[in-house]
Write a structure and sequence with these properties.
alpha/beta; about 60% helix; 13 helices; about 240 residues
């Protein structure tokens, strides 16, 4: 949590990211496709790829919509900065049903998030363009604890370690994350409830009420009687969640 440790970790992450990107870029010599949303993950990959091989042909792919352009506003800033070719892939709500069967088949399970449809359309277009290596920035928020749900756990970890000065500094600056101290407290209370009060059946009844009530009662009861195949883990500190 100190500045020296912070630099050590950032240098290590940068070295690992650079090494991984170099290995992927060496897989072939043709144009390299990179998914670009304008966020930190994909923007870092595109800028780093451009830095590693300025002469390499890079093609940025961004999903857009007919409502407000989707992520195009932010992606365009990175594309202009790097000067790479840009392909915008249109994802319309009315196209979801057309592609849904294929998306589910490829995932071998019903998808529950529209981002899966957007990813499918992007990769479909990349294949149509004849490119065979695709680099994407998925997983950065999970790896670096970037979601708001992680912040209360981070503060909890600092308290448990007795690092009170760091805890107070982080709590004082939590507004930089877009959250308030009240938001942190509410999330912490919800996390406690999920850990100590709600069992899987209560969670399903509360969060997925329509799906829960749509299942056949006998099958539903049989499902909740079986032990979960996933080991129970109480997310009491940030390390547990990550």
């Amino acid at each position: 949590y100190n500045s020296n440790a912070g630099k050590q970790y950032s240098d290590k992450l940068n070295n690992m990211l650079t090494d991984s990107l170099q290995k992927n870029m060496q897989l072939f010599n043709g144009p390299l496709a990179i998914g670009v949303s304008g966020g930190m993950d994909s923007s870092s990959l595109l800028c780093l790829a451009k830095k590693l091989d300025p002469q390499r042909s890079l093609v940025a792919y961004t999903t857009t919509d007919t409502y407000d352009g989707g992520e195009a506003y932010w992606a365009e800033k990175v594309v202009r900065h790097t000067g790479v070719e840009w392909v915008k892939v249109l994802c319309r709500s009315e196209d979801v049903l057309e592609y849904l069967a294929d998306v589910n088949r490829i995932h071998s399970a019903p998808v529950y998030n529209p981002s899966s449809f957007a990813q499918y359309r992007m990769m479909q277009e990349i294949k149509r363009q004849g490119q065979t290596v695709f680099i994407d920035g998925q997983g950065g928020d999970e790896m670096l604890g970037g979601y708001p749900a992680y912040f209360p756990l981070f503060l909890q970890s600092l308290r448990r370690n007795g690092e009170w000065s760091d805890w107070w500094r982080e709590l004082s600056q939590v507004g930089n994350s877009g959250m308030t101290k009240k938001d942190v407290m509410i999330r912490r209370m919800k996390l406690w409830a999920k850990t100590y009060y709600y069992n899987p059946e209560k969670m399903a009844r509360r969060k997925r009420k329509f799906l829960y009530e749509s299942l056949m009662p006998d099958e539903r009861e049989r499902y909740f009687e079986l032990p979960s195949p996933i080991p129970e883990m109480k997310k009491e500190i940030l390390h547990d969640a990550l």
